[in-house]
Amino acid sequence: MRLIGVDVGGTFTDIIYCDTDTGAVAVNKVSTTPGDPSQGVMAGLLALCTAEGIAPASISTVLHGTTTATNAVLEGKGARAGMVTNAGFRDVLHIGRHQRVEHYSIRQDLPWQSRPLIARRHRKTVRGRLVPPVGAELEPLDEDGVRTAAAELAAEGVESVAVCFLFSYLDARHEDRAAAILREAMPGAFVTTSSAVSPQFREFERFTTAALAAFVGPVVRRYVERLAVALKGAGLTGELRIMASNGGVATAATVAEKPALTLLSGLAAGVLGGAAIGARAGRRRLITFDIGGTSADIGIVRDGVVTETDARSTAIAGFPLLMPMIDVHTIGAGGGSIAYRDRGGAFRVGPRSAGAVPGPVAYGRGGTEPTVTDANLVLGRLDAGDALAGGLRLDAEAARRAVSAFAASMGLGVEAAAAGILAVIDSNMANAVRSRTVQKGIDPRDFALVAFGGAGPLHGAAVAAMLEIPEVIVPPFPGLTSAMGLLTTDLRYDAVRTQFGTSGDVDLARLTADLDALEAGLAEQFRADRIAAEAVSYERSGDLRYMGQGYELRISLPPGPLGTVEIGMVWSRFHAAHAAEYGHAFPDGAIEIVNVRVAGTGRTPKFVPPAPPSGGSLADATIRTGPCWFTVEGRLAPVPTPFYRRAALPAGVAVAGPAIVLQPDSTTVVPPGAAATVDEAGNLVITLPSPRLRP
Length: 695
Hints:
This protein is α+β, with helices and mostly antiparallel strands and 695 residues long. It has 18 helices and 33 strands. Strand 7 (129-131) and strand 8 (136-139) form a beta hairpin. The mean pLDDT is 92.
């Protein structure tokens, strides 16, 4: 089977091809086209096919990671959306909850009030009410009121509508009927319901998730349809699958219908790729460290399992989101991060970035402010004579002029300023890792750092040293690991149902029936996607809490019917999980189950990176030796440093630091005092022997 993975980043679009039958691999990296990312995707994809002699029609599946939905929210460039909700509840989206990020600030920004996804004038109310505990109808839906709302929204130029009714997670009939009326009255409009997007309790979060779906729906649908047409026009008639936020992929048709699946999905592929690399290297505790041109994305893998977010912390641009998502923490730190002095004269690097256009000064595309890439070039850690991805060559003199001007403003030498730029950005990245580890009770010293992205291997050893992490793993294609991660993912769909019960009187028969129904619904989705039943597996879980608590912990549930023995095991798991998360438990306390979940996974063929060459030597891989600036024993100085060609390094070879390892998609720095080896999977494993090492 021939697969292509395409990951669109802020600066570069990464493309990787593999043939799972022959093991053939080809890669390409082109500049991202921010105005229309599909243009960069098609240009890079067709260039790869032409260069490698691959017939487009032979590609069976294109797997795509996109930030289209994320960018629409972050930049406020979504659709003009409307809402239909219950009479008297027009302002649920505005009021939110009493919790605040900054408890004592009267000037903090609340995005749902300062920049609402749906303007108040576009929120329409209708009569109709369902009530708990089973969703019985208290008042019938006013269908004429829905038609009136549709006419008003159409006249206001609204192109998408979210239908959000109270207690629709118990019974979706009112939402479904209202949606049908809206689709009939507003042909061409994107219509979604809160029960389809997130059928669980907590109306503010559920309504906001539906509002996000309506806000990004037309944007995502147009992008996916445009890309699908372009692929078909170029002869790529295979299936298009899109990365989802839950760590799986979904078909293009599913994403066009449920665009909220892709919110924050652009970052998930990198974590999955890093997890796959770590698994092949025999490591089960990993910190994935993805640095591109614009951002640094950090994920955690514990005991081989990628960490997912919980309901308390899942948000995008400050808007709460009730959907399963890979836990990825992002900061504005990358190769394009700009160095500057703030109004107080302090030395800053990022989050402002030169991005893809104009890019770092060294790219020669009109950039004028010094960036992290320029600083690495000044210190000799990048090779100006080596063509980067897409044939790009770096202008060392231009980079030096930019850093020199900045250095003069600081009263520093050029190399000292460049080293300072790297020290600041490395410190920012290390602090971001601490926020996901130390602040959550995780000791990073027990983990390996998987450094990837175009700039990850440049900074991985330095950040690991700051955190006393002993080992850094650099994948075979570090600059394309997110694209590679797409080729390691399976189809995945999630289903959830709110089901309240307590440990003393839980209805086990109903609980089992609900789980069976969720699983049956997912099985139908996989059948529609033409996935064989034997290739599908399911995992059941529940959201549990002690009585009186406000938020839950997700606990795995056993397959099959739940009896007294099985549910007793579940309660024990919850006590243990609560003690691990909060440091205490209440073994005699009553437990409440509030949601049941099923995650379905449809297994697909996987990419396996090619093995490194078995022959050759370090001498064969040597390109040259040149000066690179490092801080050794507290002093910044040039150090003679060998440059090696990554593709020529055989398995088992040892590389002593300092060393620079070059490849088209990235550059790896092995600092003084460190050592690197190429393992049997082709990873470059850097060992940092001293916790005091400071590259």
